[in-house]
């Protein structure tokens, strides 16, 4: 079709946007400044057209496409409705660009060409960096030569590999206009190729779109199966395509910082919600993280689910990582930084909230643990500063309180330190050896002896061992000598054994119950003979008045005399069967009444089985009663030490 000639970006010549003769791979007129006049005949020859040919071209550096009173206008002053932002697209044809000047001239975005003559556009790396630094949002496009979906995927991979190291914050476009490749294919096949490219770009986390002119959109592409946004090209007149997101309106725009003509584009759609600055991207089977559109390298990142460390290649580190002397562990599958407990090679480690591996003491959920210098959780015995601790062999928790190990009991204080020596627990005393093991049985300290029961508790009070009674003071030390724990007196030998029966102590004799060990006070019958013990328990001897009655207690052994006569200090007495002594009154003839002949030794030589008189009266017959003032003779009541 011959008619009005337009020169467009990436389109060297087209009639009304319907005839394309661009060759991106050739070093021809792409984006060169137009300085001459072309004759209709010459153009007819080039395009293969005949007939009348009208040419109308805007002057170089044409004004227009700028903001006037808040609105963008075309060359003829027509307002361009719905514009969100103004931008440009450039490639090697623009040469060196002053991007700060560009940004200052109301340019918010740029689409950069990526390929030239089969290689990376020589200005791409420079442009993407400097444009980004100037605050211009950067997108990219590739002039496609694909004829199959696989070729389109390869082109997508080419672009993705190129842009992955840069802050791409605008779409990546598939430039559909090459007549010798795509243009030779049916629309359905062209759409299949476009979709293959866009799907690959989208999968990598970028925003894909399709660049084409009105003619291609109407005739070369099956739009019913192409569902990606469109960047339409139509110069100097409004495009026919109804719903593009961007319009390439002229190839002869003028922008500060660029020498020569440049394509000017208008964005209709706010892409901010569709172009997140922070996201994961998978490119060529490798996953990268972008923050503020920039791939993160040698940096910690947080994607909202956790922390990751991106290495020098931009890949998430996995496994062990050392940074600034601290050790971290990144999940071997996801790369996410581990916090809390982690089991690795049968050893447990703890990583704090910052991800750093913990060493030394750790408090976690009310329990204490110890991590070795290599981070492994300690179990079993731990020695620190001459103190011992025990960490549970399964959980690693620091033990407190009683702990039985290998048949021995140990006590770990609230601080976890193993106790040694005396331990007081709720008023009960225990003794632990220097190795912390609890003592049972006899324990000697200096001149003191203690007995630790099977539970380890120090005995207090009465304790019978091997048929022998012992008494232990409140401090747990074994008692010796006289004690009065319950209002009764007892005597413990030097070996601690409770004395029973006769006791010689301090020149006095005592009698201690054979069943209870209680010291006798008052009358006591022992082996058929009666004895009397005063208030201090000492055995009484000689002529003694007890409860108004006289008794004679043998000075040599304390036995009470019965049924005899005796002479005491020149006075004669008769002793009845109950031991009561009665003074003999002398008759007028000087003889003693009732005397049978035993003289001078205080005994009659006769024995009676009668007990001492009860209440001072002789019953005249044998009884089983104790002396009236003695409450100590009922052996049936004497069932053990300390029992009243």
Beta content comes to 25-35%
Distance between the termini: 134 Å
Using the 3D structure, state the CATH architecture of the largest domain.
Answer: Alpha-Beta Barrel
Q: Which structural class is indicated by helix and strand composition?
A: mainly beta
Number of helices: 6
- List segments where confidence is low: pLDDT < 50 over at least 5 consecutive residues: 1-62, 592-644
What Rg is obtained from the alpha carbons, in whole angstroms?
59 Å
Main-sheet strand order equals: 5-6-9-10-11-12-13-14
CATH class of the largest domain: Alpha Beta
Strand count, sense and barrel status of the largest sheet are:
8 strands, mixed, barrel
Number of strands: 46
CATH fold-level topology of the largest domain:
TIM Barrel
Report the principal-axis shape: rod-shaped
- CATH superfamily caption of the largest domain: Glycosidases
Query: For this entry, what is the oligomeric state of its chains?
Result: single chain
| Helical content band | under 10%
Task: Return the average pLDDT rounded to an integer.
Answer: 86
GO molecular function, one term: lysozyme activity
Family: Belongs to the glycosyl hydrolase 25 family.
Protein name: Glycosyl hydrolase family 25
Keywords: Glycosidase, Hydrolase, Repeat
In short:
The chain has 644 residues and is mainly beta.
Please describe the topology of this protein:
Layout: E1 5-8, E2 11-15, H1 40-47, E3 67-68, E4 71-72, E5 85-90, H2 99-104, E6 109-113, E7 115-116, E8 119-120, H3 124-133, E9 137-143, H4 149-163, E10 172-175, H5 187-203, E11 208-213, H6 214-220, E12 229-233, E13 246-253, E14 262-267, E15 279-283, E16 286-291, E17 294-295, E18 299-302, E19 307-310, E20 319-323, E21 326-330, E22 340-344, E23 347-351, E24 360-364, E25 367-371, E26 380-384, E27 387-391, E28 401-405, E29 408-412, E30 421-425, E31 428-432, E32 441-445, E33 448-452, E34 461-465, E35 468-472, E36 481-483, E37 490-492, E38 501-505, E39 508-512, E40 522-526, E41 529-533, E42 542-546, E43 549-553, E44 564-568, E45 571-575, E46 580-583
Parallel strand pairs: 5-6, 6-9, 9-10, 10-11, 11-12, 12-13
Antiparallel strand pairs: 1-2, 3-4, 5-14, 7-8, 13-14, 15-16, 16-17, 18-19, 20-21, 22-23, 24-25, 26-27, 28-29, 30-31, 32-33, 34-35, 36-37, 38-39, 40-41, 42-43, 43-46, 44-45, 45-46
């Amino acid at each position: 079709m011959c008619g009005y000639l337009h020169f467009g970006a990436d389109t060297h010549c087209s009639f009304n946007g319907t005839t394309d003769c661009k060759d991106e791979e050739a070093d021809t007129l792409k984006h060169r400044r137009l300085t001459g006049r072309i004759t209709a005949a010459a153009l007819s020859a080039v395009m293969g057209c005949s007939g009348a040919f009208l040419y109308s071209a805007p002057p170089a550096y044409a004004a227009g496409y700028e903001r006037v009173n808040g609105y963008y206008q075309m060359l003829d002053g027509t307002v361009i409705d719905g514009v969100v932002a103004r931008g440009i697209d450039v490639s090697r044809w623009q040469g060196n660009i002053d991007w700060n000047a560009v940004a200052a001239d109301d340019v918010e975005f740029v689409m950069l060409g990526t390929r030239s003559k089969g290689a990376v556009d020589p200005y791409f790396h420079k442009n993407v960096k400097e444009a980004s630094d100037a605050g211009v949002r950067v997108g990219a496009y590739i002039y496609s030569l694909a004829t199959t979906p696989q070729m389109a995927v390869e082109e997508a991979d080419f672009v993705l590999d190129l842009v992955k190291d840069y802050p791409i914050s605008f779409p990546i476009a598939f430039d559909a206009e090459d007549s010798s490749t795509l243009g030779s294919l049916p629309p359905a096949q062209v759409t299949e190729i476009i979709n293959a490219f866009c799907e690959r770009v989208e999968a990598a986390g970028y925003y894909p779109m399709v660049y084409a002119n009105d003619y291609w959109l109407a005739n070369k592409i099956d739009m019913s199966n192409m569902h990606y946004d469109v960047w339409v090209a139509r110069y100097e007149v409004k495009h026919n395509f109804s719903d593009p997101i961007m319009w390439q309106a002229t190839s002869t725009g003028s922008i500060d910082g660029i020498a020569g003509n440049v394509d000017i584009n208008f964005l209709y759609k706010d892409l901010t919600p569709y172009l997140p600055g922070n996201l994961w991207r998978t490119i060529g089977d490798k996953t990268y993280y972008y923050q503020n559109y920039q791939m993160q390298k040698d940096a910690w990142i947080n994607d909202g689910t956790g922390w990751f460390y991106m290495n020098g290649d931009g890949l998430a580190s996995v496994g062990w990582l050392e940074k600034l002397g601290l050790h971290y562990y990144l999940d071997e599958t996801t790369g996410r930084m581990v916090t809390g407990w982690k089991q690795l090679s049968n050893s447990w480690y703890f990583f704090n909230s910052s991800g750093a591996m913990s060493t030394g003491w750790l408090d976690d959920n009310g329990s204490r643990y110890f991590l070795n210098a290599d981070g492994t959780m300690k179990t079993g015995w731990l020695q620190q500063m001459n103190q011992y601790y025990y960490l549970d062999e399964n959980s690693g928790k620091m033990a407190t309180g009683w702990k039985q190990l290998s048949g021995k009991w140990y006590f770990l204080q609230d601080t976890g330190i193993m106790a040694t020596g005396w331990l007081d627990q709720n008023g009960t005393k225990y003794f632990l050896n220097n190795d912390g093991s609890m003592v049972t049985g006899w324990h000697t300290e200096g001149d003191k002896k203690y007995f630790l029961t099977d539970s380890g508790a120090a005995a207090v009070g009465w304790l019978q061992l091997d048929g022998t009674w012992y008494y232990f003071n409140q401090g747990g030390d074994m008692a010796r000598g006289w004690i009065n724990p319950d209002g009764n007196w007892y005597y413990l030998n030097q070996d601690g054994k409770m004395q029973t029966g006769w006791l010689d102590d301090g020149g006095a004799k005592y009698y201690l119950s054979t069943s209870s060990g209680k010291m006798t006070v008052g009358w006591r019958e022992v082996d058929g003979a009666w004895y009397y013990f005063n208030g201090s328990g000492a055995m009484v001897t000689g002529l003694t008045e007890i409860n108004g009655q006289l008794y004679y207690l043998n000075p040599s052994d304390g036995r009470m005399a019965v049924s005899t006569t005796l002479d005491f200090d020149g006075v004669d007495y008769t002793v009845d069967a109950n031991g009561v002594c009665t003074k003999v009154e002398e008759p007028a003839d000087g003889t003693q009444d009732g005397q049978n002949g035993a003289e001078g030794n205080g005994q009659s030589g006769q024995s009676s089985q009668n007990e001492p008189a009860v209440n001072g009266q002789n019953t005249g017959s044998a009884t089983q009663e104790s002396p009236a003032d003695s409450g100590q003779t009922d052996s049936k009541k004497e069932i053990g030490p300390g029992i009243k």
